Amino acid sequence: MCEYANMSPAEVRALIRRKEWTKPTSGMAKGFTQANLAILKKDIAFDFLLFCQRNPKPCPVLDVTEAGSPVPRLVAPTADIRTDIPKYRIYRHGELVDEVTDILTYWEDDMVAFLIGCSFTFEHPLMNSGIPVRHIEENCNVSMYKTNIPCVQAGCFEGPVVVSMRPIPEKDVVRAVQITSRFPSVHGAPIHIGNPAGIGIKDIAKPDFGDRVTIKAGEVPVFWACGVTPQAVAMQIKPELMITHAPGHMFITDIQDEKFSVL
Amino acid sequence: MCEYANMSPAEVRALIRRKEWTKPTSGMAKGFTQANLAILKKDIAFDFLLFCQRNPKPCPVLDVTEAGSPVPRLVAPTADIRTDIPKYRIYRHGELVDEVTDILTYWEDDMVAFLIGCSFTFEHPLMNSGIPVRHIEENCNVSMYKTNIPCVQAGCFEGPVVVSMRPIPEKDVVRAVQITSRFPSVHGAPIHIGNPAGIGIKDIAKPDFGDRVTIKAGEVPVFWACGVTPQAVAMQIKPELMITHAPGHMFITDIQDEKFSVL
Q: Architecture of B2-118+231-260 per CATH?
């Protein structure tokens, strides 16, 4: 994996574009920000952008393409959003209808691509401070839960905030808040510490998405707003056509993680 | 002025709505965030929102109304954007055609209002740390300059970043960076320290907007991205109709300044 970790984002994207890499992107082009993808038609793109703007913690927008342009000029000006992700999912009216390695045949002139920040960006600084990140240790997906916290509605878009959970040793909770506070544009500080019931989570052992992870004695569940929120919310209105990345198959930007810190 | 400083935002807005206050809002409802206003038609609103999203330092969006709704639900759910600002300016094709105390007769069903953060929000924390804010001491407008730094284009919107300048004593420059870094959603950290020519400013004594202020010996000019940028950029495309607040006559939100700090 080391050779992929040391590649530049452009090199990894070229590999993906040539379909020489169709697996998850975790660990590739280390230090560079990976992003979630959601593609919608222009007629609902304004309301979706507004939704993200009103809910910056779960929906940190890193880049939005011009309608019809496949180039994310802000975060990867040499990339093509239609070919540079290893696996895409095509949804029609909210139903998964296809999984593909490029979307050239699905692309239309009125499509707008949203690249949304992901918590990978703050997990490295946590680990660099000696704070364990359990789902990485256990080599599984992060635990995610629907909460009773409503997002702020925008047009037809509404729904609950989805959170990701990381068990943090009691002594490290304050430091974890400080570290992630430095990254407001990739979810930022936690939105809840401790008691799952306080945000409407009935059973911490049963995540709504992702995998269950071990919570050890002396660890506190800490909850961050999660980038699954905007996809879940968009899916709920069953748009005619929506394209996303396949879970774990992210878009790799040219931006280094540290660029998203404010201090 | 003290009675106005201690009023709640809703009380001040009621006063303005009854046209009992038609002057600048500086110092009213102390501690609550004041915002710039730009109203555009829905057909160009997506590109404008995209422009703001791509240029968050000069264009920190605090709220955007649904098309046709005059209610900024996020920052002041009981307010009416058409009546709650003391003075508005009406621009047709980029020309100032009217200055009014409400926009009820100008309001149309496809209008979208943008409320954009303003540096008032970080000036109080600066002063609370004993850092002088010269234009407040000299009771004039802040000095603003066009730079040679281009904004990231979005659709038809493009132009240079406009900056505001505050002379800061050398010993306080680091602290000023730290304090304003805490407020990324209202311009955040400075974008330049020192040498005006470095960002294309030819004569520091001749601001492009606002007033000239005294720079004392031992003080360094420090430059922050300025909320005048999005208005200047929008004006440049000469939209059919655009409505803004009159300078200094701001919208007062229900949000306390400190809510915008990330740490």
A: 3-Layer(aba) Sandwich (3.40)
